[in-house]
């Protein structure tokens, strides 16, 4: 695993709100990730996330139009909670250290992992933000996105609006059908050139949860598979947004409570 970050990479991320790391995984590691994720998805039998009743392709209360979004990607969350192989991958403190170095946080907790599979001919993923969906509010929160297949212009690679995270807010504009919907809230970025994040399988990107990002349609007859994980800096508190938190856990929380459950949000890295 290419887990040692240079000062230049950290600086680039902190200026632009994203970074692409080529050849993040070795060929052997990539195959391990693919096998683990494939197994974990099969075990789920369509259940989108633990502790909720949502099924893949049905309305989950997050995306606005379930019919349209069922053709954007298949999305399964917190596979680490239901598969030991994925758990071993996701709790790797080397990745946690990378997230801490990029974000500037002392400690990193898993918010949720997420398999994002664009099937052949899938719809585009509209420009959006991540953090406003989450149950905590932290401008340092970020995600890793690992390409399990080559991510190309043809099959729906990611795109970023550089430096947008410096001006976006926690207001949730959702993810609609229209690619330009985000610019109603942030017109200052409508004329900023986007950056495509083409990646070979095994490469990865990190992006800030307040960086405007999206993905193209899959204009190919093949899959575009990715495994991602969102990270919460340690010390965050509940903001009242349910998001992916299990119903039973939600009943124990009130706004302002520390989100430090090792069962739900394990601490995977802490600076010494």
Account of the 3D structure:
By secondary structure, the chain is α+β, with helices and mostly antiparallel strands. 20% of the residues lie in helices and 21% in strands. The chain is built from 6 helices and 11 strands. The strands form 2 sheets. Strands 1, 2, 3, 5, 8, 10 and 11 form a 7-stranded antiparallel beta sheet that branches. Strands 4-9-6-7 form a 4-stranded antiparallel beta sheet, with no helix packed on it. The longest helix is centred in the first third of the chain and has 18 residues, at 27-44. The relative contact order is 0.22. The mean pLDDT is 94.
Strand content: 15-25%
The major pleated sheet works out as: 7 strands, antiparallel
Head-to-tail CA distance between termini: 22 Å
SS elements, strand count? 11
* Helix-strand string: HEHHEHHEEEEEEEEHE
* Tally of alpha and pi helices: 6
- Report the helical percentage: 10-25%
Show unreliable segments.
none
SS-based class: alpha+beta
Overall form? globular
Radius of gyration computed on alpha carbons = 17 Å
Oligomeric state:
single chain
Mean pLDDT: 94
Keywords: Dioxygenase, Oxidoreductase
GO molecular function, one term: dioxygenase activity
Pfam families: PhyH
Protein name: Phytanoyl-CoA dioxygenase family protein
């Amino acid at each position: 695993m290419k887990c040692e970050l240079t000062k230049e990479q950290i600086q680039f991320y902190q200026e632009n709100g994203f970074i692409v790391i080529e050849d993040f995984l070795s060929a052997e590691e990539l195959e391990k990730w693919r096998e683990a994720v494939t197994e974990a998805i099969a075990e789920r039998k369509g259940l989108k996330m633990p502790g909720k009743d949502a099924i893949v392709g049905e309305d989950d209360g997050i995306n606005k139009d379930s019919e349209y979004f069922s053709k954007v990607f298949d999305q399964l969350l917190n596979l680490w909670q239901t598969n030991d192989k994925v758990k071993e991958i996701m709790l790797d403190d080397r990745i946690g250290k990378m997230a801490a170095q990029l974000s500037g946080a002392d400690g990193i907790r898993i918010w949720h992992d997420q398999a994002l599979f664009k099937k052949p001919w899938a719809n585009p993923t509209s420009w959006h933000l991540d953090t406003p969906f989450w149950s905590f509010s932290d401008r340092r929160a970020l995600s890793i996105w690992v390409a399990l297949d080559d991510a190309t212009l043809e099959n729906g690679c990611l795109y970023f609006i550089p430096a947008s995270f410096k001006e976006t807010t926690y207001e949730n504009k959702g993810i609609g059908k229209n690619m330009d919907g985000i610019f109603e809230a942030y017109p200052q970025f409508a004329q900023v050139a986007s950056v495509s994040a083409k990646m070979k399988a095994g490469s990865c990107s990190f992006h800030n949860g307040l960086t405007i990002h999206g993905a193209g349609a899959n204009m190919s007859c093949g899959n575009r598979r990715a495994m991602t994980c969102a990270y919460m800096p340690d010390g965050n508190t509940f903001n009242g947004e349910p998001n992916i938190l299990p119903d039973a856990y939600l009943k124990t929380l009130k706004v302002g409570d520390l989100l430090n459950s090792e069962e739900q949000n394990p601490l995977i890295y802490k600076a010494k």
